[in-house]
Specification:
Length: 332
């Protein structure tokens, strides 16, 4: 028995229901399944199935109800931005089911040497333009259920998070100790100040991917396709590079002061030049990085809320480590 046993995605009844829906959707589109469906990935919050068909592999994704908005959001983005999204064939918005065409090669499969980081210099401008255009659809995204984590709401969300001592793992192995907890409580006013100051730069809040790393980006016909919007929210756009930088640090063992981060930040910020001067955009970006661990911690809450105690223990350090990162940044 493994810690994944007992999950919905591993139940035969659920797999049969999902397979039936997939076959029905394929039939309506005159696409023939030519082999058995394969379960590629199982997580507490999602699963991915691969379906061999007459037009190539097609992929099905299902998520927990707390993240069900991902299916409808992906469909809207696929329609509005076909050049940078996998093509969505069908969704069941209520169940959080998503059926889509093969997106091509994962970016992570092309990153062999450090110089391959140049891919990010090419794709970050595309992502920034997507974010800017998405400001037109914020109300629609919110109606779909995309979480609202705009700057004005973050201080209250931070206070609510501090009251959730179970998620913080207070005085538990891997969780926050009392000193760390007290330090976070003492930073409540600073967080309000940081949010207010960041808002003064006038950069529009928009769609934030929430998990922008090389496993969630495909390369297809020289286009970069953005996948896996289950951690997305409406908030400040500059938070997005937090997960990107974290991924690059781990993959290539980059130092915090690596010149790559300066280069990637610059090519991303160039796309926001109409909103402010280069110097002020850099100031806003640096301020956003101070707050980004808080937003990253908040994205864990819907997922953790679906887990029992045994499963939650697998991710006990997730939120505490991000809050420790916040304390580390503001103490510099």
């Amino acid at each position: 028995m493994t810690y994944l046993d007992g999950l919905l995605w591993t139940q035969q009844n659920w797999l049969e229901q999902a397979s039936s829906w997939i076959d029905c959707e394929l039939h309506q589109k005159d696409i023939k399944r030519i082999d058995s469906i394969k379960q590629l990935r199982v997580r507490h919050w999602s699963t991915v199935l691969q379906i061999p068909t007459s037009i190539g592999n097609i992929y099905f994704k299902a998520v927990v109800s707390e993240l069900a908005y991902e299916a409808a959001l992906s469909q809207v983005l696929s329609h509005q931005y076909p050049q940078c999204m996998p093509q969505v064939l069908a969704i069941n918005g209520e169940k959080g089911w998503l059926l889509m065409l093969d997106g091509g090669m994962m970016l992570q499969d092309t990153l062999k040497i450090e110089d391959d980081i140049k891919h990010w210099q090419n794709l970050l401008p595309c992502y920034a333009k997507l974010q800017q255009d998405c400001t037109k659809y914020l109300n629609e995204f919110l109606e779909l259920g995309v979480p609202d984590r705009r700057l004005a709401s973050l201080p209250v969300m931070f206070q609510q998070l501090l009251m959730d001592t179970k998620t913080l793992g207070l005085n538990q192995p891997g969780g926050l100790n009392l000193l760390e907890y007290q330090c976070l409580q003492n930073q409540a006013n600073l967080l309000v100040k940081l949010c207010e100051e960041l808002a003064t730069f006038g950069i529009p809040e928009t769609l934030h991917h929430g998990d922008l790393h090389d496993g969630n980006i495909f390369i297809c016909d020289e286009n970069y396709l953005f996948f896996d919007w289950g951690d997305s929210s409406i908030t400040h756009p500059f938070f997005s590079l937090h997960s990107t930088y974290d991924c690059l640090k781990r993959r290539f063992k980059l130092a915090k002061n690596s010149s790559w981060f300066e280069r990637l930040g610059a090519c991303y910020l160039e796309q926001w030049a109409e909103y402010d001067t280069k110097e002020r955009l850099q100031q806003a970006f640096e301020q956003a990085q101070q707050l980004s661990p808080i937003v990253a911690a908040l994205r864990w809450l819907p997922v953790l809320s679906t887990m029992n105690a045994i499963h939650r223990n697998q991710y006990m350090e997730a939120v505490p480590n991000l809050l420790r990162e916040f304390l580390s940044i503001i103490s510099v």
